[in-house]
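Example S7 (structure tokens).
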């Protein structure tokens, strides 16, 4: 009986730790002149995107971040790879969905 109880508690603890852990790289803030954007790993991995769809191309880590412009995004770079109005909402609009001002 004691052993069963111990196992149950251990299992619950492991589950709780996993739920609390951030997914992938967690939330990543990108600073820019228009109002910072927060990229959420949580939301993106829930959309059935594998890590490989974004790593190691086009992204490495926040530390190695190379800022690009909206114009480059409209041409399919970075967020624009998917936010093209087909796979996901376009970078040509919905400014406030990504930018918090
Ligand atoms: C839709 C794109 C996307 C997907 C899918 C994705 N990532 Fe990321 N990841 C990013 C972006 C964007 C950054 C930030 C890179 C930057 O600032 O240039 C990042 C950064 C990271 C970092 C570094 C965090 C930091 O603070 O430097 C880790 C670790 C990471 N991702 C792991 C993962 C893992 C593991 C998965 C799969 C579960 C995953 N990522 C899926 C886009 C993605
Ligand atoms: C899908 C998310 C997304 C949408 C939608 C979006 N942006 Fe951005 N924007 C970003 C990210 C991320 C950066 C920072 C890029 C980097 O650091 O590489 C950025 C950077 C910028 C910059 C600084 C770079 C530059 O191009 O001068 C401006 C200005 C900007 N956005 C304006 C806008 C406007 C205006 C809109 C709406 C028409 C918009 N953005 C829509 C994600 C988005
Ligand atoms: C590999 C494809 C991919 C890349 C790269 C990508 N996204 Fe997304 N993103 C998606 C998909 C798919 C959705 C869900 C469909 C939709 O909302 O149109 C989404 C949804 C979002 C949402 C809406 C979240 C919500 O509230 O439901 C935001 C904000 C967002 N992305 C920001 C970004 C930013 C900022 C970047 C670049 C740093 C980025 N995404 C790069 C595929 C991508």
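Recovered sequence:
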């Amino acid at each position: 009986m004691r052993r069963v109880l111990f196992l149950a508690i251990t299992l619950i603890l492991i589950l709780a730790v996993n739920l609390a852990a951030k997914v992938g790289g967690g939330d990543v803030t990108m600073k820019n002149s228009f109002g910072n954007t927060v990229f959420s790993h949580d939301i993106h991995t829930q959309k059935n995107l594998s890590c490989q769809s974004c790593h190691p191309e086009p992204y490495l880590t926040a530390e190695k971040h190379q800022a690009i412009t909206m114009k480059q995004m409209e041409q399919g770079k970075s967020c624009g790879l998917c936010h093209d109005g087909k796979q996901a909402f376009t970078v040509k609009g919905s400014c406030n969905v990504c930018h918090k001002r």
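Notes on this example. Residues 9-20 have pLDDT under 50 and may be disordered.
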